Each structure stands twice: as C-alpha cells, then as structure tokens.
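Protocol step 6 of 9: fold each sequence in the batch and record its structure tokens directly after the sequence line. For illustration, a two-sequence batch is reproduced in full.

Sequence one:
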Amino acid sequence: MGTTMEDKKTICPHCNKKLSKWAAPNFNFSDGLGWCTPFLYVCFNDECTFYKNSWKHMYEMYGQEMGYRFMMHPDSGETSSVPVGGKNVMKGDIIDEVREAEEEAEIEARKRAFQTLTDYYIRKDTDAILAMLLDDNGFGSVRLKAAEHLGETGNINVLEKMVNHRFVNEVIKKKVDEAAEKIHKKNFTMECPHCAEIIKRRAKICKHCGRELEQSV
C-alpha cells in the first residue's frame, strides 16, 4: 500500500518520523485564541534536528535551558512549536493510538450489541434476549437493557433461568431482581420462601417442597 495524503500530513518535515497525537492543553502558548481541537500533532522524536537544535537556540538567544518540539494543527495544518523543559515533558499526554483504536472498536461492538438486542426485542425473542443477559462476557450496559426488556416481555420459562443464574455484578443483579418481580406480578407467581421454587402467589402449600405458606395478597 502507498502512502496516503493523511500519512504525509502527519510526518515531521524535519526528521520524517510520524507525528504523535497529543492531548491539547487548556491553555495556549501564543495567540490565546484556543486550540479548538482535542489533540495536536507533535513530533516526539528526541533525535529530530528541529528539537535538538532548539535547545542550543534557546540557550544562545535567551539563556534558557529549554527547547521546543515541532507541532501541527490537525484541521488547519498550521505548524508551530511547543516549548518543553525536558525530554519527558508532555509525553504523558501522548494519545496511545493502539488504545484509541481499541476503544473505538469497543464502542462499535457495543453499538452492534445494542442493535442486536433491539432486534430481538422487536421480534419478542425472549430466549435470545435471555442469552445476552446471561453472557458474563457481554457489555454490562447491554445486559442491563436485556434485563429490562425481559421484565417487559419475559415469561415463567425465562424467569427460572434468570433467578438460577449467578450474577457477580451487583448492579446487574439488582436489575434482574426488578425484572423478575415484574414477571412474577404479570403471572401471579412468587418464589416459595422455603425452597425458592416458583409457585402461584395464592398457593397455600408449595407443590415442590410441601411446606405450608402464608396466604399472599
């Protein structure tokens, strides 16, 4: 693959190394007008001639032990310099492109999961919604929504699987408990206080354990 225009734009003209995305600060170094961008392109190559020569220039001109790095605005392409007091200054604010790509991929995966869940909800496919809820590796926000959907559309069959699953996350567990109560209310059922099996709310004796029950209202 050849070099794209975007690649050429993000190459330092002084050392031909790729510029790094750097989180823009909330203050400015020159005109005070604001950067109007969440990041700037900056050359962090310590062997860059622009960077190396800057230290000599700043000392000879101003008697200052400092230098500056090449900088470019991502939108306008305007170039300038960013003053630094040491090699590692600013490096903590470099935007990790690998991490950024991973975060973007995760956002897209979450969007797809929500869309899939919505499709299941529209089709009233409670088994598929239940599977997303019980997926311990799924997105927490998606599982919370799945529990909410089951509270609206679920039946006794999904209820048994819901209450028998061990939810580690307390927030999800609370949402599942709320959904289970909604399903119980719709179906006039409850859990037996003795054996936790599902029984009719007005039952006097549990059909599973045979224990006598107080009359529910």
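Sequence two, same batch, same settings:
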Amino acid sequence: MTSYYDVLGVSRDASDEEVRAKFRLLARDGHPDRFRDVAQKKTAEEHFQLLTEAMNVLTNPARRRAHDTELEKNRPLSQDPAAIARVYLAMGVKAYREGNFPDAITQFDLAVRHYDKDAKAFHYLGLACMKVVGQVRRGVDAIEAAIKLDGNNALFHRDAGKLYILAGLNAKAERHLEQALSWLPEDAETLKLLEEVRPKKGQSGERKPPSGIFGRKA
C-alpha cells in the first residue's frame, strides 16, 4: 500500500501546514509544465496527481485517520530501515534513468531519510539535484554528506566540484576537484573542470567571475 507520508516525505505526526508546505515544494519542482518531452510530461502529470491526492488525504482529518488505519493493517511485522531505503534507492535510480529527475530526488530523499549511512544514496541525491532548477544547494548538502561517509571516493569529490561550480563557488570546487585528481590523475573530465575554475594565464591570478545561482552567468 502506498504511504502518502512517504509520497510527500513527511513524518506521521506532520501538521497540516507542514504537509501543505512540502506539497508546494514538490509540486513546484515537479510540475508538468516544466517538461517539454511528452513522456516526461506524462510521468510528471501522474506524479503530480499522486502528490495532490496525498496532500488532500493528509489534510483531511477523517481521510487521514482512515489512511493511518490502513497503513497499520498493512505494516510488516518487522521493518529494516536499510532494506526500505534500498527499495527507494532502486525507485530513484529508475526515475533518474528515465529522466524524471524531480521524482528521483523524492525517492533518493526518502532513501536517506530511512537510512542515513549509505554514501551512495546521498551521491545519487546530489546527482539528481544537479538536473533540477533550484536544487543546487540541496545537492551540495547531499554530496557533502556522501563525502563524510566515504571521503576517499574520487567520484564523490569530482561531483562535489560540479555542484560547487553550479553554485558559483569556484574555490570550493577547485579543492574538491584537486582531491579527485589525486586519485584519478589522468581523468579528463576532472582536468577539464579544473581548467574551468582555475584562473587563466594573463589574468594576474584573478579568478573568472562566478557563474550559477550565486553569480553572473557566462
């Protein structure tokens, strides 16, 4: 049975205002009007309908009580947070591969909420956030969480560099990219990103103007 709490990513004791606030956030990021591709738009419409149904049920006292009762009836005798997280992780990977990045963010977020010790789940969350307008800061937080769990992963540092570039924070991007390069010295993508954030010759050591959400676009 689908849990509307999980659909919105809220706790069982969330207030009506918390439910509505989360609905507004998810509905804005995953609104069908944001997609031009027919298949992606159809997927977004279906997910938007599910979000709307979840919000309507959880903000109606009678319907919410009935939903809670059904959830209790269908609750497994034992729940392993890591196992539940793996299910959401798999759903997120599927959504990501299909290009439904808002839904991927929702699923990866549920994965890390259930089990916050999986560096890979935080990494995937960061990757999905790169693809959605307005989610860069959230992606930065996710990739940093992944690095805290697995600080020796070169790919994590490289993707942290990408996110910081999007955020316009080139100095932080450079530090992460240099860390990635210490493990992958010949990685072409990392070298290219470093060239982007480092000052060019003849600029007297000055950095390029930042781009992204904190600076001027190129």
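Proceed to step 7 once all outputs are recorded. Observation for sequence two: The chain has eleven helices and no strands.
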